[in-house]
Design goal:
445 residues; 3 domains
Length: 445
């Protein structure tokens, strides 16, 4: 008898011990560590996970017991986008978990049928589940489309598999880092390099950066209609070392004409290999209600609108390329502000041999219940080599009376290519929107 057959019998006996009204209605899935069964119960549909023998006995038993305990400790909660755990422990010789039945199907199997209009809401719900776990001082560590269920109408998302929870303030991973071996408790294709190769010591900041990266992975899958690094996995899955290297060094492509530009930029920033830049994002940035530039934000700003090249490239060529990019961006940004009826002064400043800054300034007169204020938008542009890449950072500052508030964003480096100015300008506009929206939220508190 295989494990799933034995576990099915254990599930039947578990229901019998539970009492009248409890029965197994089918098998919901078989994984590497457990089998999950659909149950009928007096309280409604439930799912029962029976942990296999390898993880219920012997040297893995303590690890499993700790994981079960951590999941049960969450209790019945009020987060609608996170799986509920009702009970857990040991029955006969096996560990078990009793959970609710998430509606719908595994998101990874539905990526090509998710309406584009639902992408924002799905990511927002996953971020809400992530924020709930953060409020309990734990990180999920394996957020991916295969660990999400999506309802038939694509309106409700549920984050599954709480077996990978980790206390964000635990420096040694008690119960999850087996005897100091420090395994990666996650999926390699959705893990950033600092976690995949353990390049940084564990900390709350590192777990935050991992959450952001994996939310970026979910957004990638929804935009691209396939799981991240699909081609690389198909060609290199049997060589896990090569695959891990590809995942750690290649930038996932996130681009689509029918997806809002702010979501494309959000995904690219979230998948930045530099964890410090990535960690500048917050979970709020993925939540739907915080990602709209409303008329309130425009009013705050003073608007009247209601809504690669060879390594041996000589320095002279790099300076020419920098000037071309900066002048183009300066003109486009000034035009964008003008379209919002914001009349800004603008100039270009030389910072270093291969670095310039674009500075735009404007005023908001008092009125409509707002004080007079001044604004400045500073974009630092640097050309790196070899090969040629463009480094961008943005600072947005508002001065209102004696108060000054500044917001900043560092974008992932851009490999130089034809038409890259348009992509940078699009990302800069979305960054400006994001910083202005954050400023608006702070002003409204």
């Amino acid at each position: 008898m295989d494990d799933s057959g034995e576990e099915a019998q254990i599930a039947e006996r578990w229901c019998k011990a539970k009492g009248l009204g409890w029965s197994v209605s089918g098998i919901a899935g078989v994984g590497g560590t457990a089998s999950t069964f659909s149950l009928i119960s007096p309280e409604g549909a439930r799912a029962l996970k029976i942990i296999n023998n390898e993880f219920s006995t012997g040297r893995r038993e303590k690890e499993t017991a700790n994981r079960i305990s951590k999941q049960v400790s969450l209790g019945e909660h009020d987060c609608p986008y996170l799986i509920q755990t009702y009970d857990g422990g040991k029955f006969e010789s096996r560990y078990f978990l009793l959970m609710n039945r998430a509606p719908g199907h595994e998101l990874s199997t539905k990526l090509d049928s998710v309406p584009r209009s639902e992408i924002r809401g799905i990511v927002s719900q996953v971020a809400t589940a992530c924020a709930f776990l953060r409020s309990r001082n734990v990180a999920h560590r394996d957020i991916k489309s295969a660990n999400l269920f999506i309802s038939e109408d694509y309106k409700t998302t549920t984050l599954l598999d709480l077996s990978v929870l980790r206390d964000i303030y635990d420096p040694v991973g008690l119960g999850t880092d087996h005897d100091g071996q420090l395994p990666v408790v996650a999926t390699s294709r959705y893990s950033p390099p600092e976690y995949l190769f353990r390049l940084e010591p564990p900390s709350a900041e590192l777990w935050h950066a991992l959450d952001i990266y994996q939310l970026g992975g979910v957004l990638h899958d929804l935009v691209m209609c396939e799981q991240m690094f699909h081609q690389e996995y198909s060609s290199s899955s049997e060589n896990r070392y090569r695959f891990a290297w590809l995942v750690a060094t290649r930038e996932p492509v996130v681009n689509a004409l029918d997806v809002d530009p702010d979501l494309l930029l959000l995904a690219r920033r979230a998948l930045d290999k530099d964890w410090r830049r990535r960690a500048q994002l917050s979970l709020d940035d993925f939540q739907m209600e915080n990602r709209t530039l409303s008329s309130i934000t425009l009013q705050l700003l003073g608007s009247k609108v209601g809504t690669q090249k060879p390594a041996e490239t000589p320095k002279s060529a790099l300076r020419t390329r920098l000037s071309s990019i900066v002048l183009d961006l300066e003109a486009q940004l000034a035009f964008r502000l003008s379209a919002m009826e914001i009349q800004a002064t603008h100039r270009v400043e030389d910072v270093a041999e291969l670095q310039k800054s674009i500075v735009l300034r404007w005023e908001r007169p008092s009125g409509d219940g707002l004080e007079a204020a001044s604004f400045s938008l500073r974009i630092d542009v640097e050309v790196l080599h070899p090969p040629i890449a463009i480094k961008i950072s943005v600072v947005f500052e508002m001065v209102e009376g004696s108060d000054a508030i500044a917001k900043n964003v560092s974008l992932p480096d851009y490999a130089d290519a034809d038409g890259i100015e348009s992509r940078i300008e699009q990302d800069l506009v979305q960054s400006f929107v994001e910083m202005a929206s954050r400023l608006t939220r702070e002003q409204s508190k």
